Amino acid sequence: MKGNPILEVRDLQKHFHLGGGKTLKAVDKLNISIARGETFGLVGESGCGKSTAGRTIIRLYEATGGEVLFNGENVHKLRGNKLQEFRRHMQMVFQDPYASLNPRMTVGNIIAEGLDIHGLADGKQRKQRVSELLNAVGLNEEHASRFPHEFSGGQRQRIGIARALAIEPQFIIADEPISALDVSVQAQVVNLFKKLQKERGLTYLFIAHDLAMVKHISDRIGVMYLGKLVEVTTSEELYANPLHPYTQSLLSAIPIPDPEVERTRERIILEGEIPSPLNPPSGCPFRTRCPKAMPECAASMPEFKEVQPGHFTACHLY
């Protein structure tokens, strides 16, 4: 890790009570620590709870249990001015750049919304700030008078990023910010995130299901399965030496741009369906699809522990 943690997530839980005695454990005892200036990638299949984790950290959802410490303060206990101040320091970029922008507002007003709420700029200063932000994300100042439907998906995501940057946050949660974009545009948006981080000293929680893209932006990566973290290490170490069988299967699905290597490579194809989070398996949640499952995997949940320096996993194999 780079330095002191700006964010500490301790035993975070987010459960949804669906009635009839059913409880969906979307996030179950999540522990993450993110250093100032770091990019932490959170990956896993759809439905693993990674987006719910992001929304609970930023307090779009109230936590069921555990705590989120941002700059040493418990986010879920903040009220009034303290909560308003927290919202200024942590912002979110959403997955769908069209659904997250108000179609009735001009781009200038969308970007300046945070400035208005927090009383940071008005009049000439507000207009100047919007122009600066549009330039920072690779758009032109004349775009301020247009509406979201006049832009492409990639441009709309840039508008979403400009809106998040408007109030100069320290921390940005990017929730699958490239998955709704064309492949040709994805790399441009990832490069924009990296450029802005370097210029503004930002810290990111970057949520995605595409491990290949996450590698390019993340310092460390956490892998989630059915609401639980199964592996955390640096992005180089994760690719060179994945320990958890689930991580190994995810990495084996990434194509390698070398026909010779690709032809001889062995894919790990997982058997069976992803279990329902309403009725997860006993013990290790991955055991019903794991090619290396043992009897003890059904008996008890493996402890999430450091098995090599800086490399954590939850698996009975270690």
Secondary-structure map:
Elements lengths: L4 E15 L2 E14 L3 E5 L6 H8 L7 E6 L2 E2 L5 H10 E4 L13 H11 L5 H14 L16 H13 L5 E5 L7 H18 L2 E6 L2 H7 L2 E6 L2 E7 H6 L4 H8 L6 H6 L30 H5 L4 E5 L2 E4 L4
Parallel strand pairs: 3-8, 3-9, 6-7, 7-8
Antiparallel strand pairs: 1-2, 1-4, 4-5, 9-10, 10-12, 11-12
Helix pairs in contact: 3-4, 3-5, 4-5
What does this molecule look like?
- With 318 residues, the protein is α/β, with parallel strands linked by helices.
- The chain is built from eleven helices and twelve strands.
- The protein has helices at residues 50-57, 80-89, 107-117, 123-136, 153-165, 183-200, 211-217, 235-240, 245-252, 259-264, 295-299, and strands at residues 5-19, 22-35, 39-43, 65-70, 73-74, 90-93, 171-175, 203-208, 220-225, 228-234, 304-308, 311-314.
- Strand 9 (220-225) and strand 10 (228-234) form a beta hairpin.
Jot down its keywords.
8-stranded mixed beta sheet; 12 strands; 11 helices; alpha/beta
| Helix-strand category | alpha/beta
Mean pLDDT: 88
* Main β sheet profile: 8 strands, mixed
**Low-confidence parts, pLDDT < 50 over ≥5 residues?**
none
- How would you describe the oligomerization state of the chains in this entry? single chain
Radius of gyration (CA) equals 21 Å
Terminus-to-terminus distance: 23 Å
- How many β strands by DSSP? 12
Strand order of the largest sheet: 6-7-8-3-9-10-12-11
Percent strand equals 15-25%
Outline: globular
Helices and strands, in order, run as EEEHEEHEHHHEHEHEEHHHHEE
Q: What's the total helix number? A: 11
Helix content: 25-40%
